[in-house]
Amino acid sequence: MGSVQIVTTILAAAITAVAVWLAARAVMKIVAVIRLGRPDPERFADRGARTRTMLAETAGHTRMLRWTVVGAAHWFVMVGFIVLSLLVLEAYFEVVSPTGGLPLIGGLAVYGLVTELIAVLGVVGILVLIAIRVRNRPTRPGGRSRFTGSTMWQGYFVEAVVLAVLIMGFVIRGFKVATDHFEYPVWATPVSHAVGALLPDWSAGVSIAALIKIAISMTWLIVIALNVTMGVAWHRFLAFFNIFFKRDPGRVGSGLGALRPMMSNGKPLDFEEADPEKDQFGVAQVEQFTWKGLLDFSTCTECGRCQSQCPAWNTGKPLSPKLLVLSLRDHAYAKAPYLLAGGGKDLTGEEKATAAQLAHLDVLALAEADKPLIGGAEDGGVIDPDVLWSCTTCGACVEQCPVDIEHVDHIVDMRRYQVLIESSFPSEAGVMLRNLENKGNPWGAPQNTREDWTKGLGFEVPRVGEVDDFEYLFWVGCAGAFEDRAKKTTRAVATLLNEAGVKFAILGEGETCTGDPARRIGNEFVFQMLAQQNVETLNEAFEGREKSTRKIVATCPHCFNTLGNEYGQLGGEFEVVHHTQLLAHLVSVGKLTPVQPVDGGVTYHDPCYLGRHNRVFAAPREVLGSAIGGGAGGRGGAASISGAGRDSGLVEMPRNSERSFCCGAGGARMWMEEKIGKRINVDRVEEAMSTGARTIAVGCPFCSTMLSDGVNGKGAGEQVEVLDVASVLLRSVKPADATGEKGTAAAGR
């Protein structure tokens, strides 16, 4: 060991010791903060499925690869970061000796080839990611960036470090080539040999370059250790855990569909025994999130994928799912010293810590502890009320997040406290909640008018109790029973089921609202009241039947989601299908035969709670494809989704399927005024109209209302018609029966 190697060894050891100590301290702090959260025992179930999902999403990059270029580039960088950590380890041997290397595998040609290839692809990958970040920088002209609100220097720093470490790997190998100490052949390491041809024969160069590489790597570790909220770096470690502990590891669209029940002390809250002084009603303080919630906040990469897809953000509202998560993260870590010292408020609002426990705390931590979780700028709140109430719960944020953050659950948990304890929510939504409590529907319509839609159908609609041999219980829903446009869909579905010979029955006046709008706005009490009533009614209707024969068909995706995914939490186990799924089946088996082509072109809007939340994408398109061709394409044939044939085919909007853009009605927004920014439904209608299609097909009564209002607001009611998929099919199957409805619809516009 020469004098140069003595110096490089000492310096490498010193900076490594400092970095490791700081990193260990940072990890302990992160773990301590996450452990402040409430229990969530269900996250430890089914560890086999969790492990498989975690490996698929990390090693396989199954979520990231949906964005092909970014996903591929990120995969090479990730693999480079993991595999080339061996080269950082090798650098510790090289600071000691210019001929040093890893024992056992260090001299293998295959090791040299693999690391060379990964390093080259890693350089290409990181350059692509840097270019994407620069191209999408928030200061660029032409609109909002997905990086708006991200801490840009941190992203550039991490990317620069990765690039520098990769380059220094080639420099070290180059010096070994130049000094004739390189053990790998040219065919395995051509880039390293090319670099070596440019470098001088300097024996100390290997150790000095290795020291620089170690210094860069340890500087990175020191910087992130001093910035525990630096998600763009920490997600490299935390993402594995966050994905492992996702809500539903075996379900595509984990974190979507059902909402988590309201929890207290790790158990679903029983309202019959709940005590507001002992039980937690929603989230009022950041430490009242579960530990998984705090892990979510810590893991955020600040990539802005959620933000780029959010309908609120894209229409000028203050909600950005990313900025909401970052605000909660920063607040949690700023408040952590106070909480870890024993501070915090109990459920009655009393301070838990003694004056002695808080005496040594920094004034900033005490100030952070006094901030309300929800409050305007004048109150110093962490989350502004306009942010909280802008959410449509469409799930685009959850769908897009590469590390499985569950934004919707966290937003609804905060809403629950505001509604149930503070009674603080948009005033216009109060009418809807009162109607649900008093009338059993959000419109406040009389219960004895629930069956009015059946009048004049030309056939008898059987009621449960009058017949026992029905195959499907037709869940009409509140919109389908009371809202004029939705009643046309209800009549169309009933007509088609009757035409196909399907035995079905309705509950009629025995039906009440599923409780979806109450639950999404945060009133879990009203939801459970309505849901328990419906579960009791449905269990009685299906008495004696196995689950496989307890079939329900629903026209509203919100009812479909609640009945199928959430009533199981209250003892209601049913087989629930959306009407487009049943109609697609009936067409495919020949029980419904389209005969009249639908002209003028059709575009389809995916309802959030049908598509993204429940992954029903194909069935509506199969029905439309058959109707558009008048059956010429064959029964059940898949619809064309290309842009060709705008006059006669199904034309997809740019944002479709799992990336469909919300209509603006979800999350109980149907009953709230949209006072900020551009109207979401107008944005979606403009996109639909840009396809040139004369018919906008939907599969949801809320979407029908919102898009119809948007079309009328654009003054295009005479050129573009909004129709449910069932009505489109009815026009093709029974053109004569649909003529009257078409005329009525046109007159209504």
From TrEMBL:
<feature type="transmembrane region" description="Helical">
    <location>
        <begin position="108"/>
        <end position="132"/>
    </location>
</feature>
<feature type="transmembrane region" description="Helical">
    <location>
        <begin position="64"/>
        <end position="88"/>
    </location>
</feature>
<dbReference type="InterPro" id="IPR017896">
    <property type="entry name" value="4Fe4S_Fe-S-bd"/>
</dbReference>
<keyword id="KW-0560">Oxidoreductase</keyword>
<feature type="transmembrane region" description="Helical">
    <location>
        <begin position="6"/>
        <end position="28"/>
    </location>
</feature>
<dbReference type="GO" id="GO:0051539">
    <property type="term" value="F:4 iron, 4 sulfur cluster binding"/>
</dbReference>
<feature type="transmembrane region" description="Helical">
    <location>
        <begin position="153"/>
        <end position="172"/>
    </location>
</feature>
<dbReference type="InterPro" id="IPR004017">
    <property type="entry name" value="Cys_rich_dom"/>
</dbReference>
<dbReference type="GO" id="GO:0016491">
    <property type="term" value="F:oxidoreductase activity"/>
</dbReference>
<keyword id="KW-0812">Transmembrane</keyword>
<dbReference type="InterPro" id="IPR051460">
    <property type="entry name" value="HdrC_iron-sulfur_subunit"/>
</dbReference>
<feature type="domain" description="4Fe-4S ferredoxin-type">
    <location>
        <begin position="291"/>
        <end position="321"/>
    </location>
</feature>
<keyword id="KW-0479">Metal-binding</keyword>
<dbReference type="Pfam" id="PF02754">
    <property type="entry name" value="CCG"/>
</dbReference>
<keyword id="KW-0472">Membrane</keyword>
<feature type="transmembrane region" description="Helical">
    <location>
        <begin position="219"/>
        <end position="245"/>
    </location>
</feature>
<dbReference type="InterPro" id="IPR009051">
    <property type="entry name" value="Helical_ferredxn"/>
</dbReference>
<dbReference type="GO" id="GO:0005886">
    <property type="term" value="C:plasma membrane"/>
</dbReference>
<dbReference type="Pfam" id="PF13187">
    <property type="entry name" value="Fer4_9"/>
</dbReference>
<dbReference type="InterPro" id="IPR017900">
    <property type="entry name" value="4Fe4S_Fe_S_CS"/>
</dbReference>
<keyword id="KW-0411">Iron-sulfur</keyword>
<keyword id="KW-0408">Iron</keyword>
<protein>
    <submittedName>
        <fullName>(Fe-S)-binding protein</fullName>
    </submittedName>
</protein>
<keyword id="KW-0004">4Fe-4S</keyword>
<feature type="transmembrane region" description="Helical">
    <location>
        <begin position="192"/>
        <end position="212"/>
    </location>
</feature>
<dbReference type="GO" id="GO:0046872">
    <property type="term" value="F:metal ion binding"/>
</dbReference>
<feature type="domain" description="4Fe-4S ferredoxin-type">
    <location>
        <begin position="379"/>
        <end position="411"/>
    </location>
</feature>
<keyword id="KW-1133">Transmembrane helix</keyword>
